[in-house]
Design goal:
- Helix 1 packs parallel to helix 8.
- This protein has a six-stranded mixed sheet, with no helix packed on it. Strands 13-12-11-17 form a four-stranded parallel sheet. Strands 6-7-8 form a three-stranded antiparallel sheet, with no helix packed on it.
- It is globular.
- The chain has nine helices and 23 strands.
- The chain is of the alpha/beta class.
- The protein has helices at 11-20, 46-51, 115-118, 125-136, 151-163, 184-196, 237-240, 281-299, 337-354; strands spanning 2-7, 29-35, 40-41, 60-61, 69-73, 76-80, 85-88, 93-95, 98-101, 105-107, 143-147, 168-172, 199-202, 207-211, 214-217, 220-223, 226-229, 233-235, 259-260, 263-268, 315-320, 324-329, 332-336.
- Its cofactor is FAD.
- Belongs to the NADH dehydrogenase family.
- InterPro entries: FAD/NAD-bd_sf, FAD/NAD-binding_dom, NADH-Q_oxidoreductase.
- Residues 3-283 form the FAD/NAD(P)-binding domain.
C-alpha cells in the first residue's frame, strides 16, 4: 500500500484531503495525516479568538473520515528526505512514499532583542489562546502594543477595540501609512477608522528592543501591559532546517510540479513554498489543487504536467470589527460594509463545505 503523508492539516493539506476523499483515492494508496491538533484550524480568524469576540469552537473544523485515512496527532521534530520518513520526539517515525509538507509559518522577530521572549503571538492556536487569556484578563485602562500594521495587526487591533473599549491600543507601523501594500484610498479609510475609534497609530516605528512590558521604539521607552507581535512571518522551523535551496525569505524553491528539486516525491504547499504571491489561505488552496493533479498523474503512471497556468487569486478581504471592512477584489478596492459581509460569507461557505 502506497503511503501519502500530509504533514500539516492547514488550508493546503485540507484541500488535498477533500479533493482525494472519498472517491478519488486509488485503491492502493492510503493517507497519513500528521498534525499537532485533532482538527483543522481557521487561521484567518485567529485575530478574533485572541480579541475575545469568538470562541475556540468557531475556528475548529473536523478533518474528513475515511477507512484509508490514518491520523497521527503530535509534533514532528524533523523530516528526513533521504530516508523518506518523518521523525517525532519519542523517536517514532512514519515512512512515506509521497509527502506533502504544509506546516505553515511562524513569527519572524527580525533579531529584535527580547521580541520572542516578551511578546504574544497569533500564529498558532496554542499561542492564540495564551494571547486571548492575557488580553482579556487586563485591567481597565491597560495599554496594549501591537507591533506590525499589516493585515493581521490591523484586524487584531480593530477586533480588540470592539471587544475591549476600555483598553489603550497602540498600533506600531514602520511605514508612512498602515497597509502600505494596499491602495492609498483603502489605507486612508482604515486609518480614519482607527482614529475615530481611539486606536493610536505610531508610524515610522522601529522596534529596537523589547523587555517585559516595555517596547523601545527608536530607542524610546514605552511601557505597556501586553505586547502582541504581528510584524513578520517565516517558514516553520522544520522547513528552515531542511538542507535544500530556499529563497531570500526562507521559503522552499520548487519545481513547476511543486516538488522539491531532487526529491520528486516530496511537495511543499502553502506558506513554506516559494511562490509569486504573498502567503495566504487562498494561495495554499490553489496550489493544493495543482498538487492533487500531479499526484493523480503520478499514481496512474502518466506524464506529469510540464507546467500550470498562473494562479488566479480573487483578492484579499479584511475586517474592521464586525460591521466594517476593506479589501481588494479583482484589483478593485472595497471599503465599508460590503467587504465585511463578503468576508463573513466566505468564512461561512468554507465551514459549510468543509465541516
Amino acid at each position: 500500500m502506497r503511503n501519502l503523508v500530509i504533514l500539516g492539516g492547514g488550508y493546503g493539506g485540507m484541500r488535498i484531503l477533500h479533493r482525494l476523499l472519498p472517491n478519488n483515492l486509488p485503491e492502493d494508496v492510503q493517507i497519513t495525516l500528521i498534525d499537532r491538533n485533532p482538527y483543522h484550524c481557521l487561521k484567518t480568524e485567529y485575530y478574533a479568538l485572541a480579541a475575545g469576540t469568538i470562541s475556540d469552537q468557531h475556528i475548529r473544523v473536523s478533518f474528513p473520515e475515511h477507512p484509508r485515512l490514518h491520523s497521527k496527532f503530535g509534533e514532528a521534530v524533523s523530516i528526513d528526505l533521504e530516508k523518506k520518513c518523518i521523525i517525532f520526539n519519542d523517536d517514532e517515525s512514519i515512512n512515506y512514499d509521497d509527502l506533502v509538507i504544509g506546516l505553515g509559518c511562524e513569527d519572524k522577530y527580525h533579531n529584535v532583542p527580547g521580541a520572542k521572549e516578551y511578546t504574544y503571538s497569533i500564529q498558532s492556536i496554542e499561542k492564540c489562546r495564551e494571547t486571548y487569556r492575557k488580553l482579556n484578563n487586563l485591567n481597565a485602562g491597560a495599554t496594549v502594543a501591537i507591533i506590525g500594521a499589516g493585515l493581521s495587526g490591523v484586524e487584531l487591533a480593530s477586533e480588540l477595540r470592539e471587544s475591549r473599549k476600555d483598553l489603550n491600543i497602540k498600533l506600531f507601523d514602520r511605514g508612512n501609512h498602515i497597509l502600505s501594500s494596499f491602495p492609498e484610498r483603502l489605507s486612508n479609510f482604515v486609518e480614519k477608522w482607527f482614529i475615530e475609534h481611539g486606536v493610536e497609530i505610531i508610524n515610522h516605528s522601529n522596534i529596537t528592543k523589547v523587555e517585559e512590558n516595555i517596547v523601545y521604539n527608536n530607542d524610546e521607552r514605552i511601557e505597556c501591559d501586553a505586547i502582541v507581535w504581528t510584524a513578520g512571518i517565516q517558514p516553520n522551523k522544520l522547513v528552515r532546517n531542511l538542507p535544500i535551496e530556499k529563497d531570500n525569505q526562507g521559503r522552499v524553491i520548487l519545481t513547476p510540479q511543486h516538488s522539491i528539486p531532487s526529491y520528486e516525491d516530496s511537495f511543499v504547499v502553502g506558506d513554506c513554498a516559494s511562490l509569486p504571491h504573498a502567503p495566504s489561505a487562498q494561495l495554499a488552496e490553489a496550489q493544493a489543487e495543482q498538487i492533487v493533479q500531479v499526484l493523480q498523474k503520478k499514481w496512474n503512471n502518466e506524464p506529469l504536467p510540464a507546467s500550470f497556468p498562473p494562479f488566479k487569486l480573487k483578492g484579499v478581504l479584511g475586517s474592521l470589527g464586525k460591521k466594517q471592512g476593506f479589501g481588494l477584489v479583482n484589483d478593485r478596492p472595497l471599503i465599508g460594509r460590503v467587504p465585511r459581509v463578503l468576508k463573513s460569507g466566505v468564512l461561512w461557505m468554507y465551514k459549510y463545505h468543509n465541516g
